[in-house]
Amino acid sequence: MENHQYGVQDWSRLVGDVIMYSRRINTKDSDGDAFSLLQVQTLRNFPREKLAGEVVAVRLDSTLIHNTSPLNDGSANKALHTIKYLHDAGAKVLLLSSWDYSSNPDLLSIDYFADHISSVLQLRVLRASGFSDIIQSKTEEMRDGDILLFENLAKFKEDLANCLDFSKKLSAGVGVFVNDAFCLAHKIYASTVGISRFCYSSVAGFHFEEELNKLASIAETTERPYIAVIGGKNFLEKRTALRVLATKCDGLMLIGKLSFQIMHALGMSIPMNLIEDGAVDKAFDLIQFAKKRGMDIIFPDDFRCVNDEDPEVMDVFSSDGIQPGWTPVDLGPVSLQNISSRLLNCKKVLLIGPMTFKACEEGAVGVSMLSKILEKISGTGCEVSVVGNASYKSLVGPGDGPYSSLPYKHFENASVVWEFLKGRALPGVAALDRAFPFEIDWESIFYDPTQPLVVDVGSGNGLFLLGMARRCQTSNFLGLEINRRLVVRCLDEVLHCGLKNVHFLPTNATSTFRSIISSYPGKLVLVSIQCPNPDFNKPEHRWKMVQRMLIEAIVDLLATDGKVFLQSDVEEVTRRIKEDFLLHGRGRLALEGGDGGGWIRENPFGVRSDWEKHVLARGNPMYRMLLRKVDLN
User: Fold this and answer.
1) Most exposed: 35, 263, 271, 469, by fewest CB within 10 Å?
2) Any idea what the Cα angle at residue 451 is, between residues 446 and 457, rounded to 5°?
3) Cα gap 244→33, rounded to integer Å
4) Measured distance CA(338)–CA(302) in Å, rounded
5) How far apart are alpha carbons 615 and 376 in whole angstroms?
6) What fold characterizes domain 43-214?
7) Distance (Å, rounded) from C-alpha 250 to C-alpha 365?
8) What EC identifiers does the entry list (predicted)?
């Protein structure tokens, strides 16, 4: 015992922390749930060798492609990198996109867009002119590495409607879907959401992944002070997002009409034309929420205003002293001085919403001064993020301007960010396969992480694994269960029993098995799938309890001579799962023991699951099979 890395108290605290985590992620709060949904599978982590010969559909953002020049010295933007990566891996690439350039009808043709993609990629791009059976026949005729561009999706209303039949046509012959159109992440299209239902794997492309990482950075609070500078209007529409930001930031700095709603709620004298109907109570709620958190809501001290009768006449008024007949068009000198002093101390700044007043978008002094402030703090290591193209252009200026080379994070599509900050799930993100959100420290989970590993997929109440762990101390046991409440109960039992060779994780193993198990230091020797629950009310899903993605991950990671144990009280369920394993195992699995049909009469482990005990107690049979991984060499 003296060689054990963890004492009893350390181990109890460790498992207790995991239990608290599982309980926390099972609780959906308004500001945390949306951030957890950003953890998705990516093309970067998809096994490259499995792309060869695979038909891969890629949803593109056409604006990124249209604004790109030919590849030079191997460098390209992330969207082009996605296509090039798939081509180089030997995939058959199907490009899906929409483009609308009504000012120039020539740019609407598929021939023009295909030629443009060919020029920037320096690769041949084929054309498809419709979505009929001929499209599927074309995909069947494609060779490894071919690139096929589908017709302009803007011509098909079925895409906008997320039509089921249209989604099936888009996915005809497709195995893997790659979404690289982050600008549409907040919308539901057949080409971004519907298609994912019919592909065995749906992942984020390199551009999509990069934008997701930037979006997640909004929630990161390691760099402080962290201030969000927010412009624009429509307080009621943005109040939820403002509250979320209030949980992440050390201060909210409001510019524009939003600021007047806060001032009005504080009892300051504000012209009626600047007050939003029904916003005062919600603004006061935000003030109280910020006060409880000890966070500041900062608003301008003064404004430059123009005379309504003579726009050439300008004067400066304090925030609560704007006279009738005058309209705020820019920040005043005191406001700019205070903004500067606040931001100069920041380590992280987020700018979202228009930084200009609509009445004075050109030549605004405030924007010019803000640009200089951002340049200064950026030079001291402050992380600056700008949301929206309009805000970015107003602050940074033209491509050859003095601020164009500053290392700001830039979110091109403000609508996606606002939806995300409102705590709403992004459909385009939710349609992708989930990823386990953390790296696993196996040494913290198991006493000896080099021992052989047994994984139970859909571990339920954990009785099978707990029994196995008690009987065999020389192996480690891991349960993967989608029901987080069951995981918490199992971890409670682990803590109570003091077991150091068994653990449970709350996850959907279908999409996370590979990322979780691939980092395990020891060998994977056994995977059990017991009594999966078929949905007999949905025939099209009845036999899809075990997906191709999971099967391939299990077979890839299983050690040679490792076993797969299948068991169900429904004969056809076990039979179908066995057939799927043999199909997608591609010759790497063989039946182990059993009678002529491969059935095993008795449980080979001597430990029964809770449901197995229940079925046998009724006098009904269990249908079992054991598969073994063979060495093809």
Assistant:
1) 271
2) 70
3) 11
4) 10
5) 71
6) Rossmann fold (3.40.50)
7) 26
8) 2.7.2.3
Domains 43-214 and 221-424 share a fold: yes
- What are the phi and psi torsion angles at 618 (to 5°)? -80, -5
Instruction: Identify any residues that bridge with 351 across adjacent strands, giving them in sequence order.
Output: 229, 386
Pairing of the two strands 251-254 and 476-481:
unpaired
The tens digit of pLDDT for each residue in 462-519 reads 999 999 999 999 999 999 999 999 999 999 999 999 999 999 999 999 999 999 999 9
- Residue 588 burial (CB count, 10 A): 18
Asked if 469 and 7 touch (Cβ cutoff 8 Å), the reply is: no
User: Which pLDDT tens digit goes with each residue over 505-551?
Assistant: 999 999 999 999 999 999 999 999 998 865 555 544 444 568 999 99
Model pTM score: 0.86
Q: At what angle do helices 78-88 and 110-121 cross, to 10 degrees?
A: 80
Q: How far is CA 394 from CA 13, 51, 380, in A?
A: 52, 42, 22
**Burial (Cβ within 10 Å: 0-12, 13-18, ≥19) of residue 591:** middle
CATH class in words for 221-424: alpha beta
For 621, counting Cβ atoms within 10 Å of its Cβ (0-12 exposed, 13-18 middle, 19+ buried), the class is: exposed
For residues 70-85, one letter each, b for 16 or more C-beta atoms within 10 angstroms of the residue's C-beta and e for the rest, the string is ebeeeebbbbbbbbbb
Specify the residue for token string 């090039």: 84
**CA–CA distance, 76 with 347 (Å, rounded to integer):** 30
Q: Is the dihedral of CA 465, 471, 473, 475 positive or negative?
A: negative
Joined tokens for residue 515: 């990322």
**Domain range list for the chain:** 43-214, 221-424, 442-629
